[in-house]
Write the structure tokens for this entry.
Amino acid sequence: MNAQEWYELGSFHNVDGHKIFMIDTDEENKSNLPILCILHGFPTSSFDYWKALPELKKHFRVIIHDHLGFGYSDKPQDYSYSLFEQTDIAQNLWQRLGIKECCLLAHDYGTSIFTEILARDNANKFPIKINKIALCNGSMHIELAQLLVMQKLLRSPIGPFIAKLSSKFMVKQNLRKIFVDPTQLNDEEIDAIWHMMNFNQGKNVLAKISRYTYERQRYWDRWIGALQQTKLPIEIIWPDKDPIAVAKMASTIKQETQNSNLIWLKNLGHFPMIESHEYWSQTVISALKSSHL
């Protein structure tokens, strides 16, 4: 699938004054399937799930949006890109769609938005009932993360300069090095990812959105505390060869959560939904539909 084909699958919604791109596999809600809301990762977009979506939508009404600053959504230059505001956008979008309850899946950057959702839910301030969670690999324990050199540079004071120098070749090199099998990220996918990163002058905000890792440090107690306090059922689905959100992170989250189950994805890297979409999809579906917790 190319970038234009993905664009044509979606629609735009005005949320908090910004145009947010979203794909809803059952906009008229005719299927009566359970709802699965997905929070995607950095620096990519909802497109991460293009291979997995056909299988997921057999079992769920899938709703996935591009965070502000990502993909086809607006990329305002005068904006903080705080994870709190990204959470507001997700929450307000889902409410706008009339969602009363859902399962939730989060990966990478999306896991930080997820932990803020948990903090609100623990305080009875999240308006949507969460039935079950698929927590995929993301660096919530930022002290354990092995960030790429490019990630460190983008979030540094020279980040805007690095962003201007970024190229499709650099993106390809950095993404492929976090796959166990780099051939599973093909050139057409790279073209689509690069197109969406550049859409709406995306280079101009890349450094700003890269600084979310500092918020993970600043609000560590709030967000890790939310993980520790929640009693919601969590399926931790983690590739054992992720070079960024390393295996120790998954084990740590398992130990500190009250109602969780850890599932290892064997011999996969940071983007398992691309690298082995059938294996990943089947694992997610089985985990979310299980009732052993």
Notes: The two ends are 36 Å apart (CA to CA). The longest helix spans residues 83-96. The CA atoms of residues 37 and 63 lie 5 Å apart.
